[in-house]
Write a structure and sequence with these properties.
The chain is an alpha/beta fold. The protein is built from 23 helices and 23 strands. It has five domains: 178 residues, HPT domain (Four Helix Bundle (Hemerythrin (Met), subunit A), Up-down Bundle), CATH 1.20.120; 88 residues; 184 residues, Histidine kinase-like ATPase, C-terminal domain (Heat Shock Protein 90, 2-Layer Sandwich), CATH 3.30.565.10; 135 residues, OB fold (Dihydrolipoamide Acetyltransferase, E2P); 130 residues, Rossmann fold (3-Layer(aba) Sandwich), CATH 3.40.50. It starts with 8 loop residues before the first helix and ends with a helix.
C-alpha cells in the first residue's frame, strides 16, 4: 500500500522552522565564540536533520540547500574552515532560502528548487575557497529599501541579497500545528498512566461497594421476611445504597472510556510510520551496492505500519548494521552469483507485519548465508567455546555466537571491522532498550533472515502480573505465548526435567521460583503429586524457543508504564540480567518486569547443568559404547535442543537439522548411524524424508525413528510403510524408552 507522505508535510515544516531558529541564533552567536565545538556541532545537527527529513519527504530542493549548509558546517566542525563573516553570511542566507522554500511547501505542497548559485557558493566555501560578498559570485545588486529584518534582534553579519529568481511568498501568520518536545508527551503519558492506576484502585473500591450493596440487600430481604418494624427503613437505605453503587459503576465506566480515548490519542502523537526508517534504508542499500559494484534490489513491505518514535529510532540503528552486512558481505557480486547458479541481481527484503500485540520486522537476503566454519574458528580464537565441543554445536548454537561481544557479523565473514556497532550491541538495544527480541535463520548458499519483534510503544505496554515464590512479577505480554494448566499426567521427563508436549514440540517446564533462586513453594506437577492439583504455566517464547514457567497464581493483565532500571542496575538484575524494568501496581507496590530472553538463557543453563550430571551418571555406558553419530530432524528448536541433550548425556554425538530438506542435505553430507525425525515439517515432511533416505544406499539399513505428536493408527502404519524402524508418539514419550529403542536398533547393526 502506497503511503501518502503529504500528511507529514505540516509536521516537517514545523520542525524545520524550529531548526532554522536554532541555526539563526547559533550563527549569530558563533562570531563571538568561534572556537566553541559544541555550538558548531549543534548547528551541524540541525542542518543534518533538515536534510534527512526533507530527503524522506522527497523535497529535493530543501534537501540540496541543507546538504550544502551541512558541508560548510562540517568543514567548520573539522577545523578546515574558520568562521568568517562571509561564511556565516552564506549560512544565514541558506537559512533564509530554506525558510522561503518552506513557505512554498506549506502553500502548495510542491518541491521548490534550490538556488544553484547559493549552493555553489556554499560548496566553494566548504572546499576552502573564500566566499565573495555575493553568494552568486556576481556583483551585488544596487541596494533597495527593504523592511527591517524580523528574523533576529541579535546583531549579525549582513546577508547577501536574495537572488532575483526567488519568488516572495507571504508567510502565514499562524500554523495549524505546533511542535511539542517528546519529553512533554512522555509527561502526558505518564500522567495518563497514573490515571489508569487510580482507576484500577477505584475498580477495587467499586468491588467492595458492590459487596456491601449485596449484603445490604440481603439484610433488607431478611428484615422483610421476619416482619421486623424497621423493614421499610432497611429497604429504603438498601435501595439508596444500590442506586449509589450503580451510579459509581456508571461513572467509572464513563471515566474509563474517556481515559482510554485520551490514552490512545496521546500514544498516537508519538507514532511514526516505518517508512521513516525504511526509505532511507533502501537508499543506503542502493548506495552501498553501487560502491561495491553489486546489483541489488531492495523490496519493502509494511512501511505504513506505525510505531513509537523511540522504537523506530532504535530499530533504525539495527537496520543500518544488518543491511550493511547484507550488501557488503552476504550478497555476492554478479559473477559470484552466476557461479553459484543465482541471477546476477541480488535481493534484499524488508517486511513489517503486525504480530500479536507488537510488530515483526524481517530483513532477509538471498546471499551466501553465514559461514559456520568461520564463525567457529573466530569463536575458538577468542576462547568463547570449548574446542572439544565445537564440532557438536548445532547451527542455531553457532548462529548465536555472532551476538557475543567482539564477534560482529562483519568480522566473522570478511575480516572487516570498524563499520558500525556489532550484533551484540544490536541485541542489547533491541532486547533491553526496546523490550524486543532478535532472531535469525541462515541457510548456507541461500541467504540469511533477521527478525526483530518489537512492541508498538515503549510508553505504555501490556504487562502480565503473577505471583511466584511469594513475590509479584511481571512479563511483557508480547512474550507470553499462552497460559495453560498442567497436571502431572500432562508431562514427560526429558534430560532430568519435566516437559510439556505443546502442538508437536517439547516445551521445558521449570518453577519460576526455582529459576530465580527464591524459596521453593508448591508449584508444578512434580511438587504436587500428592494433591493432583494442576499447576499454572506461563509459556513464553523468544527467538523460536519456548519455556513454560510454573507460577502460583495470576494477578492481572493490563496496559502499564514500564519504568527503566537505574543506570547502575541495567543489564544486571541481581547479576543475572533477568529484570527489564519496574511497574507500579494500583496498591503502590513496585513489581519487577522480567526479561523473557534472560529467563530462557537461565533455563538453558539449568538444563545444561542437569545434562552434565546425567552425562556423569552415564559415563560408564559412554566409555563402553561406540560414539554413535545421530541425526535429529525437527522444525522445533525446543525439541531439537532437548533430544540432543538427552542423547549427548548418554554418549551419542548429535547433529541437528531444522526441517526435512536440511536433514536430507546433512544426511548426504555425512554418515549417520541413526536418524530421528519429526513428521510435520515445512517442505519435506518426516514421511517423505524417511522414504527418500531409504532410496540412498548408505541409509537403506540405517535405523530411522519417527518421533511425532501424530498418534493415529493410520499415521503409524504409514511411518512403517515408508521405512521407519520405530514410531514414538511425543505425548507418550519416555526418555528411557527412546534410549532402549535406539540401543536395540543400533545393536542390530553393530
Amino acid at each position: 500500500m502506497a503511503l501518502d507522505l503529504r500528511k507529514f508535510i505540516d509536521r516537517f515544516c514545523g520542525e524545520a522552522r524550529d531548526h532554522l531558529t536554532r541555526l539563526e541564533t547559533g550563527l549569530a552567536a558563533l562570531e563571538g565564540a568561534p572556537d566553541d565545538p559544541e555550538a558548531v556541532n549543534a548547528l551541524f545537527r540541525s542542518a543534518h536533520t533538515i536534510k534527512g527529513s526533507a530527503r524522506m519527504l522527497k523535497l529535493s530542493g530543501i534537501c540540496e540547500t541543507a546538504h550544502r549548509m551541512e558541508d560548510l558546517l562540517g568543514a567548520l566542525r573539522s577545523g578546515q574552515y574558520r568562521p568568517e563573516p562571509a561564511g556565516i553570511g552564506l549560512l544565514l542566507q541558506g537559512v533564509d532560502a530554506i525558510a522561503a522554500q518552506l513557505d512554498r511547501v506549506a502553500a502548495d505542497g510542491g518541491d521548490p528548487p534550490a538556488d544553484p548559485a547559493l549552493c555553489a557558493a556554499l560548496a566553494r566555501a566548504a572546499a576552502g575557497e573564500v566566499a565573495p560578498p555575493d553568494a552568486a559570485g556576481t556583483p551585488a545588486p544596487a541596494p533597495v529599501p527593504t523592511p527591517t529584518p524580523t528574523h533576529s534582534p541579535t546583531q549579525a553579519p549582513a546577508r547577501p541579497a536574495q537572488p532575483a529568481t526567488a519568488t516572495p511568498v507571504d508567510r502565514p501568520r499562524a500554523r495549524d500545528s505546533v511542535r511539542v518536545p517528546l519529553a512533554r508527551l512522555d509527561e502526558l503519558i505518564r500522567l495518563i498512566a497514573e490515571v489508569n492506576r487510580v482507576q484500577a484502585r477505584q475498580r477495587r473500591r467499586l468491588a467492595q461497594a458492590q459487596a456491601l450493596d449485596r449484603a445490604a440487600q440481603a439484610l433488607a430481604s431478611a428484615a422483610a421476611a421476619a416482619g421486623r418494624p424497621d423493614e421499610t427503613q432497611a429497604q429504603t437505605q438498601a435501595q439508596a445504597l444500590h442506586h449509589l453503587v450503580r451510579g459509581l459503576r456508571d461513572d467509572l465506566l464513563a471515566q474509563e472510556q474517556l481515559a482510554a480515548g485520551l490514552n490512545e490519542r496521546a500514544l498516537k502523537l508519538r507514532m511514526l510510520p516505518l517508512t521513516t526508517v525504511f526509505e532511507p534504508a533502501t537508499r543506503m542499500v542502493r548506495e552501498l551496492a553501487r560502491a561495491a559494484a553489486k546489483e541489488v534490489r531492495c523490496e519493502v513491505q509494511g512501511g505504513e505500519i506505525e510505531l513509537d518514535r523511540q522504537v523506530i529510532e532504535g530499530l533504525g540503528e539495527a537496520l543500518v548494521q544488518v543491511l550493511r552486512n547484507a550488501v557488503d558481505h552476504a550478497l555476492e557480486d554478479p559473477a559470484g552469483r552466476r557461479a553459484a547458479g543465482k541471477p546476477p541481481l541480488g535481493q534484499v527484503r524488508i517486511a513489517a507485519r503486525h504480530a500479536g500485540g507488537g510488530v515483526e520486522v524481517e530483513v532477509s537476503d538471498d546471499g551466501r548465508g553465514l559461514n559456520r566454519e568461520r564463525i567457529i574458528a573466530r569463536a575458538l580464537a577468542k576462547g568463547l567455546i570449548d574446542p572439544a565441543r565445537a564440532a557438536a554445536l548445532t547451527d542455531d548454537q553457532v548462529w548465536e555466537l555472532i551476538y557475543a561481544p567482539g564477534l560482529s557479523t562483519s568480522e566473522i565473514i570478511t575480516d572487516l571491522s570498524g563499520r558500525g556497532v556489532g550484533m551484540d550491541v544490536i541485541r542489547r538495544t533491541i532486547g533491553e532498550d526496546l523490550h524486543g527480541t532478535v532472531s535469525l535463520v541462515s541457510r548456507p548458499g541461500a541467504g540469511t533472515s533477521f527478525t526483530f519483534r518489537l512492541p508498538l510503544s515503549l510508553a505504555v505496554m501490556r504487562v502480565l502480573l503473577f505471583e511466584s515464590g511469594g513475590q509479584r512479577f511481571g512479563l511483557a505480554a508480547q512474550h507470553v505465548v499462552e497460559l495453560i494448566r498442567v497436571g502431572a499426567s500432562d508431562t514427560v521427563t526429558l534430560a532430568g526435567r519435566p516437559a510439556l508436549v505443546l502442538r508437536n514440540e517439547f516445551v521445558p517446564l521449570i518453577p519460576l521460583a526455582e529459576l530465580l533462586g527464591l524459596a521453593p513453594r508448591p508449584a508444578g506437577p512434580d511438587h504436587q503429586r500428592g494433591t493432583g492439583a494442576p499447576a499454572l504455566a506461563v509459556v513464553i517464547g523468544v527467538r523460536q524457543a519456548k519455556l513454560g514457567l510454573l507460577v502460583e497464581r495470576l494477578l492481572d493483565e493490563r496496559a502499564m508504564v514500564i519504568k527503566p532500571l537505574p543506570e547502575h542496575l541495567r543489564g544486571a538484575g541481581s547479576g543475572t540480567g533477568l529484570v527489564a524494568g519496574l511497574v507500579v501496581t494500583d496498591d503502590d507496590q513496585l513489581v519487577s518486569v522480567l526479561q523473557a530472553a534472560g529467563l530462557l538463557d537461565a533455563a538453558r543453563r539449568a538444563r545444561g547443568a542437569a545434562a552434565a550430571a546425567g552425562a556423569a551418571r552415564a559415563r560408564t555406558h559412554a566409555e563402553r559404547a561406540a560414539p554413535w553419530q545421530v541425526l535429529v530432524v525437527d522444525d522445533s528448536l525446543n525439541t531439537r535442543e532437548i533430544v540432543k541433550e538427552v542423547l549427548e548425556a548418554y554418549g551419542y554425538r548429535v547433529t541437528t537439522a531444522e526441517d526435512g530438506l536440511a536433514g536430507w542435505q546433512k544426511a548426504l553430507g555425512g554418515r549417520f548411524d541413526a536418524v530421528l525425525t519429526d513428521v510435520e515439517m515445512p517442505g519435506l515432511d518426516g514421511f517423505a524424508l524417511t522414504a527418500r533416505l531409504r532410496t540412498n544406499p548408505h541409509y537403506q539399513t540405517t535405523p530411522i525413528v519417527i518421533i511425532t505428536s501424530r498418534e493415529t493408527e493410520q499415521d503409524k502404519r504409514r511411518g512403517i510403510e515408508v521405512g521407519a524402524d520405530a514410531y514414538i508418539v511425543k505425548g507418550d514419550f519416555d526418555q528411557s524408552g527412546l534410549l532402549d529403542t535406539l540401543r536395540n536398533l543400533l545393536g542390530e547393526h553393530e
